[in-house]
Amino acid sequence: MIWRLEFRAGGDAGVPLASALRSLLWGLAAAAALLGSGCARDAAEAPSVAFPAKATGQLEIDYPFDESLFPPDIAAPTFTWSDGTAGAQQWTVLLRYADQGIERFVVDEPRWQPSAEQWASIKRQTTTASAQVAVVGMAADAKPVSSASVRFSTSTDPVGDAVFYREVPLPFLAAVQDPSRIRWRFGSVDSESQPPVVLENLPVCGNCHSFSDDGATLGLDVDYGNDKGGYAILPVSQQMVLNDEKIITWSDYKKDDGEATFGLLSQVSPNVASPSSFL
Prior knowledge:
This protein has 279 residues and is mostly beta strands. The protein has helices at residues 17-20, 27-33, 116-125, 172-177; strands at residues 3-6, 59-63, 68-70, 79-83, 90-96, 102-107, 111-112, 131-138, 144-154, 162-167, 183-188, 197-199, 206-211, 217-222, 230-235, 239-242, 247-249. It has two domains: 3-26 and 159-257, no CATH class; 36-154, Immunoglobulin-like, CATH 2.60.40. Strands 3-9-8-5-6 form a five-stranded mixed sheet. Strands 13-14-15-17 form a four-stranded antiparallel sheet, with no helix packed on it.
């Protein structure tokens, strides 16, 4: 059985492939950052809505979470919320910085994504102190009917690499029953476009994975041949072939004791010198 893992062109072409493949598994945040944005009016057109003192109505901010810390090289995220408050027809997004300066944006849908220029400005103002973002639901008569707020800030430490992660359909049981529906993506967190799919239609479950520190070797758990101990070890290249020769099994360990062995969160050694050297 053979599967192909192909890393297509994308992201920063100046980053060596081997270096770029160090897995960060910081994927869900990157995936959330690439959601579509609502149509925001110019800040100058936003009414002078006061920053709310407390949460009201049935508005909940879904993303980002309170006290989120964004890396400085991430693309502009999409702020999303849900609002079950009767009468809420549009929303005002308010950003309040440490110096008490406030920016306002009006949207007609429960999401907002700053432009690249706005996000660059926001990151500059949130590296030394956090900012508050509030969402205020407005009724047809322009009166506030709901509100919620969270805090976020920007780290000074960049991700500085690409992310290799799997995209699992929900509910999770559907992926368990048909693992071929799981897709693997690879891309940089600073990309405005969705990371390309580099592995799909894998008929067995593949999950825990890691790269050696130099990005030259990939280790991947695969439930191959009904063996929960299956583990693939293969060199990184533009096109990677996963076949029988690349798969070992932890079940070979003390086979005579009659007790099954499988790897849990297996990891390739940072200084791996050969495929046989792993933790």
